[in-house]
Amino acid sequence: MGLAALSPSRRRLVAGAVLLVVAGVLLLRHLGGGAARPAVVPLRPARAAAPAARPRLVVDVVGAVRRPGLYRLGQGTRIADAVALAGGSTAKADLALVNLAAPLADGEQVVVPSRSPAGGATAASPPAAGASPAAPLDLNTATADQLDELPGIGPATAAKIIAFRQAHGAFHSVDELDAVPGIGPSRIAQLKGLVLP
User: For a pLDDT cut of 70, what percent of the chain falls above it?
Assistant: First the structure.
């Protein structure tokens, strides 16, 4: 039985009921619609950004320390801080030859020499011929004979180091030896503490 079959008075009654339901829904939505809306959470002001971290230094600590290697330190730190990060000095270290109060610079190599049996100091291992007991061999001034005395460097490799130095200029880092044919990372690790740029 459709709406057309109803008497006119019943049709008015149904239409009125529909209008009341629609009006009620609209009224509820208007007055009490806050519960249906998503809650608005006020934004908290962002915390002030932490002050920018101080730039970091990377230093290479070698020689008579417990854990040689690369370490990151903050600006204004001293050699003593780098030695402490490397586990401290070994019992064989000759700290009298190291200025522990000196400030560090990025890319610096800290060499902690060890005492030799005769009472002098050596670098991480016995010095090469031509190197003084307290100082490593300088790659930029060493002769072929001096370089030949280094562990793992023979006459041919010594000649290649000198040829590379003449072609490309002075070494600025021991790691630059990697560009010399015949010298790889393991050989460079062996030479650290024995040579310097």
Answer: 75
